[in-house]
């Protein structure tokens, strides 16, 4: 049986290669995007520069349904619904550049066909969004809260033990069954393929059976945890793909720039967005760590000082120092018996000494009493 494992692994690799080559891939599958909600208002240029300090940009909506679903998930699970309090809107990465063209940050041209129909763009240079992602122009030097988005690695999978996912809506979703004994291989297949212009957003695993669930909607199953998609099923584990995360920060703007016009990006520099397929898929059930924005903007010297401060140990506050000054309690009967014997022994010794000198103490006390009495009589 063990000798057949290399052969089975070879077949699995071949199968994954064939499936990947046959699917109709219109774009690379989703990678993880982390959204930072900055509650301290700043002008548009200030917000943009603060985002860039930690490798992020102001939130972009070139694909509205994708961003809307991701931010909705983050708002509920990471921001404690604080986005709902931004009644006056927040800065987005949409601006009118020096050539008069509307453009998202990351040098993405504005496409009116992918924004929701209620969006109206009035003449302006910088654009805010309300909580429903309706865009409007604002003066760029107006202080507003803002959201930064940062590409941060691969998606991960949230496991639901003894649970099975089923999606009856075949018009917007479909499933694909494959055979594998490794959940990591199934996660790898789910994270790297697109079929019929649909991305894999979950998979069911049981023993040697893996069922991939493809859907049109970004984070469809993560957004509907209490829906009929989930049903109890023993010996099954449902893995839901999550490609986002978030953090709320009160970080102040790292630079002052109250210019009424937005600063153009340098769109002549091209950056590669290679798909990283050489990833460990063994620990997919743990969410990746999200670093605080305050930590991301620190210099190396500041990070070193913070680490040294956190690692410093006060020698007077260690447990070994405290134990030198405290007696540890021992509730064993043998230990208590020895303690009682020691107390009785000390009482016997010092009590015996006291008893041997008791007659002398009584005599001195009687003499002292007679002295006091005679002195009082003479004074009268």
UniProtKB/TrEMBL annotation:
<protein>
    <recommendedName>
        <fullName>C-type lectin domain-containing protein</fullName>
    </recommendedName>
</protein>
<dbReference type="InterPro" id="IPR016186">
    <property type="entry name" value="C-type_lectin-like/link_sf"/>
</dbReference>
<feature type="domain" description="C-type lectin">
    <location>
        <begin position="35"/>
        <end position="149"/>
    </location>
</feature>
<dbReference type="Pfam" id="PF00059">
    <property type="entry name" value="Lectin_C"/>
</dbReference>
<keyword id="KW-0472">Membrane</keyword>
<keyword id="KW-1133">Transmembrane helix</keyword>
<dbReference type="InterPro" id="IPR003609">
    <property type="entry name" value="Pan_app"/>
</dbReference>
<keyword id="KW-0812">Transmembrane</keyword>
<keyword id="KW-0732">Signal</keyword>
<feature type="signal peptide">
    <location>
        <begin position="1"/>
        <end position="21"/>
    </location>
</feature>
<dbReference type="InterPro" id="IPR001304">
    <property type="entry name" value="C-type_lectin-like"/>
</dbReference>
<feature type="domain" description="Apple">
    <location>
        <begin position="148"/>
        <end position="243"/>
    </location>
</feature>
<dbReference type="InterPro" id="IPR016187">
    <property type="entry name" value="CTDL_fold"/>
</dbReference>
<feature type="transmembrane region" description="Helical">
    <location>
        <begin position="338"/>
        <end position="366"/>
    </location>
</feature>
């Amino acid at each position: 049986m063990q000798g057949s494992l290399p052969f089975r692994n070879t077949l699995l690799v071949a199968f994954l290669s064939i499936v990947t080559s046959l699917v109709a891939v219109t774009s690379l599958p989703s990678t993880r995007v982390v959204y930072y909600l900055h509650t301290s208002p700043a002008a548009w240029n200030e917000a943009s520069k603060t985002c860039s300090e930690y490798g992020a940009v102001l939130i972009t909506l070139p694909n509205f349904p994708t961003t809307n679903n991701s931010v909705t998930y983050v708002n509920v699970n990471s921001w404690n619904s604080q986005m709902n309090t931004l009644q006056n809107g927040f800065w987005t990465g949409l601006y009118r550049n020096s050539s008069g063209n509307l453009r998202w940050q990351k040098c993405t041209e504005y496409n009116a066909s992918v924004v929701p129909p209620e969006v109206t763009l009035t003449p302006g240079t910088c654009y805010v969004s309300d909580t429903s992602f309706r865009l409007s122009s604002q003066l760029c030097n107006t202080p507003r809260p803002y959201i930064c988005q940062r590409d941060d690695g691969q998606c991960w999978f949230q496991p639901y033990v003894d649970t099975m996912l089923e999606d009856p809506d075949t018009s917007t979703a479909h499933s694909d069954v494959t055979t594998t004994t490794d959940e990591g291989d199934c996660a790898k297949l789910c994270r790297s393929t697109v079929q019929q212009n649909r991305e894999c957003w979950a998979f069911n695993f049981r023993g040697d059976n893996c069922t991939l669930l493809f859907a049109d909607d970004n984070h469809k199953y993560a957004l509907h945890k209490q829906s009929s998609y989930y049903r109890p099923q023993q010996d099954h584990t449902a893995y839901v793909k999550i490609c986002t995360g978030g953090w709320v920060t009160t970080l102040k703007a790292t630079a002052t720039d109250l210019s009424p016009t937005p600063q153009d990006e340098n769109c002549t520099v091209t950056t590669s967005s290679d798909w990283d397929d050489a990833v460990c898929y063994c620990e997919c059930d743990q969410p990746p760590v999200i670093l605080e924005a305050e930590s991301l903007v620190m210099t190396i010297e500041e990070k070193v000082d913070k680490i040294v401060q956190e690692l410093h140990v006060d020698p007077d506050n260690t447990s070994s120092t405290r134990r030198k000054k405290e007696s540890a309690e021992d509730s064993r009967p043998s230990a208590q018996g020895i303690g009682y014997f020691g107390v009785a022994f000390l009482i016997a010794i010092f009590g015996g000494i006291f008893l041997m000198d008791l007659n002398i103490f009584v005599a001195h006390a009687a003499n002292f009493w007679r002295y006091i009495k005679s002195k009082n009589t003479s004074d009268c």
